[in-house]
């Protein structure tokens, strides 16, 4: 059993896709064990994406991630990190396989609907960035 960290990004929340995206997680056997809605401050978004601080898209990414409310969740299941990334599809929706969340719901490379941790180590760090152990069921 593994945990991963997941975000429904502002474009997907704005388009009323929270339920559709949660349905995909649950249908895949990924259990939602913590969840909250937040409107990120710039400081929170910059800290979360600190690894990308020197990338040319960083400012635009922070603008987007602070543009409206997001839903954060911890997902639990067998092989959760890899299976969640499989359900999301490729970062660039043009490369995302049919039937993945990004193929269906992304608006662009930046506004790509969802985030998912890329390793167990990232998952632990990202979960701890937003949730205390007591908020995870
Ligand atoms: P995420 O971390 O959101 O799950 P990812 O791991 O597939 O996605 P990263 O390389 O970590 O992709 O990039 C983080 C986010 O930054 C992407 O999801 C996307 O929103 C944005 N992004 C990544 N690369 C670019 C780019 N070249 N141009 C614009 N935005 C980008
Ligand atoms: Mg990433």
Automatic annotation (TrEMBL):
Transmembrane segments: none annotated. One of its GO terms (cellular component) is cytoplasm. InterPro entries: NDK-like_dom, NDK-like_dom_sf, Nucleoside_diP_kinase. Its EC number is 2.7.4.6. It is an enzyme of class 2 (transferase). It comes from the Bacteria. Its cofactor is Mg(2+). GO terms for biological process: CTP biosynthetic process; GTP biosynthetic process; UTP biosynthetic process. It catalyses: a 2'-deoxyribonucleoside 5'-diphosphate + ATP = a 2'-deoxyribonucleoside 5'-triphosphate + ADP; a ribonucleoside 5'-diphosphate + ATP = a ribonucleoside 5'-triphosphate + ADP. It is found in: Cytoplasm. Belongs to the NDK family. Homotetramer. This is Nucleoside diphosphate kinase. The gene is ndk.
């Amino acid at each position: 059993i593994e945990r991963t960290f997941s975000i429904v990004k502002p474009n997907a929340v704005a388009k009323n896709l929270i339920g559709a995206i949660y349905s995909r997680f649950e249908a895949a056997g990924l259990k939602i064990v913590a969840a909250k809605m937040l409107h990120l401050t710039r400081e929170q978004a910059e800290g979360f994406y600190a690894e990308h601080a020197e990338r040319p898209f960083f400012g635009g990414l922070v603008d987007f991630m602070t543009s409206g409310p997001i839903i954060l969740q911890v997902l639990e299941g067998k092989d959760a990190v890899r299976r969640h990334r499989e359900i999301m599809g490729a970062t660039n929706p043009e490369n995302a396989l049919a039937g993945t969340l990004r193929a269906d719901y992304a608006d662009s490379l930046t506004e790509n609907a969802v985030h998912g941790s890329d390793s167990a180590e990232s998952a632990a760090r990202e979960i701890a960035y937003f949730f205390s152990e007591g908020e995870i069921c």
